[in-house]
Write a structure and sequence with these properties.
There is one protein chain. The chain is an alpha+beta fold. It has six helices and 16 strands. Strand 12 and strand 13 form a beta hairpin. It is globular. The N and C termini lie far apart (43 Å). 34% of the residues are buried.
Length: 285
């Protein structure tokens, strides 16, 4: 399945328009049944809400925002801005060329989220596509799985300042060591926030800690030269203490669990695990 830009122009004249081509049967059926649905965009960090709407060929969005019968005749992406430019922004792609083709996959979350996953882009004047790598659980780092995305970030931080990475590792190891081999019944999960300074040097800025909903709901990741990514972070001593019902506080089902020990079996989709003990071992090596 792919998108093709059918009109290049300024936002004042409607902006670039993108039509779906070679739509897979399950996506076609979903769009035709719904008429239109909000788009959740896959980024290098994971899913993110967007301003775009996927619209079926037999529907349109009226001036009042309602989905009504229309005769456009194409399944398409509609929005105030260009979805091509949104992909360019999130994936750090070179500016100055229009998109000739955007290859993508689509996934439909059980809660009804329509997720578009860019896999390759071809720019005007170019014959070869640029591959956009899909990294599974991009913000997960624990003893069972360390994402390539995190590994590249740690390596980039080491190249920029090995002393900062060494200091961050020592701070995280200290907190992990104090949690191991002890009766932690009287130790509050907030104690993990002592690692906030170290984590900020690695690209994770924890936001204000709240006592309702997610602990740090406006936390921000920024890796390499990519734009910042806002994502709720839940603080737990053990990842198995993560409560699924907390997902109702989020606009989309996206969160990262920051813990000392990862023991959660089958985390929900789009919930990544950042295990401090595994991160400490990596930074020490």
């Amino acid at each position: 399945m792919h998108l093709q830009q059918t009109k290049a122009g300024s936002l004042a004249t409607g902006g670039p328009q993108y039509y779906f081509h070679s739509v897979t049967p399950h996506v076609k059926e979903y769009l035709r049944k719904r008429g239109a649905c909000p788009v959740v965009l896959q980024t290098p960090y994971g899913i993110a809400s967007s301003s775009f709407t996927a619209v079926g060929r037999d529907h349109k969005i009226s001036g009042t925002g309602k989905i009504v019968v229309g005769k456009v005749g194409h399944d398409r992406i509609q929005g105030v801005e260009s979805i091509g430019e949104a992909i360019r922004y999130w994936y750090g792609l070179t500016s100055g060329r229009d998109f000739k083709r955007i290859d993508l996959d689509a996934a439909i979350h059980p809660d009804g989220h329509f997720i578009l996953i860019p896999t390759a882009v071809t720019m005007s004047g170019m014959t070869r596509a640029q591959i956009l790598e899909k990294v599974i659980s991009p913000l997960s780092f624990h003893h069972d799985y360390q994402s390539k995305f995190w590994k590249k970030q740690i390596e980039a931080c080491r190249k920029e300042s090995s002393n900062d990475v060494s200091w961050a590792g020592s701070q995280i190891r200290r907190v992990v060591a104090e949690h191991q081999g002890l009766n932690l019944r009287n130790v509050h999960e907030v104690d993990l926030l002592r690692t906030a300074g170290a984590l900020s040097l690695l690209g994770l800025d924890l936001s204000l800690y709240l006592n309702q909903g997610f602990d740090c709901p406006k936390s921000r990741f920024q890796f390499s030269k990519l734009p910042p990514y806002s994502c709720p972070v839940e603080i737990k001593k053990r990842s198995s203490d993560f409560k699924y019902q907390i997902m109702r506080y989020a606009e989309i089902p996206r969160a990262v669990v920051l813990c000392i020990e990862h023991d959660l079996v089958n985390p929900p989709d789009h919930v990544d695990i950042l295990e401090l003990s595994a991160l400490a071992d990596c930074l020490h090596s």
